[in-house]
Amino acid sequence: MEPLVDAPNPIEMPGATPVVETFNLGKFYRTGFWMNEKIESLKNCTLTVSEGETFGLLGQNGAGKTTLLKTLLGIVRPTSGRALLLGRPLGDRTVKQRVGYLPENPYFYDYLTGWEFLQFAAGLFQIPPSIQRQRIPHLLDLVGLSQSAAIKKQLRQYSKGMLQRIGMAQALINNPDVVFLDEPMSGLDPMGRYQMREIILSLKNQGKTIFFNSHILS
């Protein structure tokens, strides 16, 4: 399969601080019985995303978009090239506190309520309870999810759209500088896509840097 994520040389915004920089980044996987076959999912990817920019990476399914995202987040290691995230090499632990991430198919502890799930996510970032009590209601309002549903309903009772909203709130729980969204419109109806777009625009107005993957051109 020929990868589509083979970006041209980027056009940098004058005076803007780079948040994401990749230099001929590549990733291949070995497969086959003897692991002697190579599948190249990312090829010579060079791009720059500046501070405060909303950057959309478009490509068909299997083009390597998620591979690029996971490489930037340190989930998988690149085979070639190099990259910087917030000015630091990939995998730097000090960067993780400043990054938010919504996977395409996130896993939720479905016996938790939405509120409990956000408390759990906040605990991973060691956010004090006093700040959690202010931030969680604010995020629920931002993503359009009622507090009563978040408090009373277990995640197993949520619709796809509600799960996507709670996932977005989770990605923002640590007030990140840069937010990575992998197919944020996936599985949403037209109204859900519109609302997700409005959330992204709201984040842009807050000065957040947003990097999202999508195969939905509109």
3D structure, described in words:
- There is one protein chain.
- This protein has helices spanning 65-72, 93-96, 114-124, 129-143, 147-152, 160-171, 190-205; strands at 18-31, 37-50, 54-58, 80-85, 88-89, 99-102, 178-182, 209-214.
- By secondary structure, the protein is an alpha/beta fold.
- The strands form two sheets. It has a four-stranded antiparallel beta sheet. A four-stranded parallel beta sheet has the order 3-8-7-6, sandwiched between helices.
- Strand 4 (80-85) and strand 5 form a beta hairpin.
- Helix 4 packs across helix 6 (160-171).
- The protein is globular, with a radius of gyration of 18 Å.
- The protein starts with 17 loop residues before the first strand and ends with a strand.
What's the β-strand tally?
8
Task: Report the end-to-end length measured between terminal Cα atoms.
Answer: 25 Å
Please tally the helical runs, counting DSSP H or I stretches of 4 or more residues. Answer: 7
Mean pLDDT: 87
Sequence of secondary-structure elements: EEEHEEHEHHHHEHE
Kindly provide the radius of gyration, computed on alpha-carbon positions and rounded to a whole number of angstroms.
18 Å
